[in-house]
Amino acid sequence: MSEDVPLASTVLILRPGAAGLEVFLVQRHRNSAFLPHAWVFPGGRVDPGDHLAGHPRVRGGERALDAMGLGVERGTAALIAGVRETFEEAGIWLGEGALADDLRAPLAQGEIALAELLEAQDASIDLDRLVPWSWWITPASEPRRFDTRFFVTVASAKGHHDEHETVDSGWFAPEAVLEGADAGKFPMAPPTWWTLREIAGGDPPRAVVEGGWDRPQRPIQPILHFGADGFELFLPGHLRHPEPALPGLPPRILFRQGRWWRDDPAE
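Below the sequence we write its predicted structure tokens.
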């Protein structure tokens, strides 16, 4: 994709719960410039400080880089951004060593660079903790656009939102969030909604993560169309989309009657 669209990363953090798989979600602040008030997976834009390919405190990631096809420099930056954002927004560190919770805000606000933090805390990043899941690009008609790589991982830490960019958080069963979204309790963007559907169904977290290696890494760039009763997103495989179908992905997602629908509002 064009490098004019900012590269971003988001991370599905999974854990086994009492009733099955749980995923960590945060709710964005209502004043956020992008997706205000929405429930999302931790993530954000790749920062200049994430370009640490070859840094001695950054380890692993070879298999993920090969799957992503972004090249070493940009691919490593995308993976590192996922690790950094997971720490900033969820307080969960995907690496060796321990980082104190009070380091989250200085890192997020640019008061300390990631490389400096790693050295000061004798910590390292383990890129093998992240497995590529999917690749979503904001529709061309949107004013704020991101080329976002979704990753999946397993973590057992408690996690907590940062109370700055995000105002609420929790571990949830995907099925419960989807039911809540239908009732208007979990506002979310379509990539989040669809991804929750993909991981719902009862598979244990480790199996979901391992399954990520079998998923094709092709871009999903919806074409947005507004109608009289809502709007719809044409996806790869739809007659009005130039890209061929992706396995498991519906050709269309619709927003009708205050909720998201897969392909057909009569479902």
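The chain has two domains: 7-215, 222-267.
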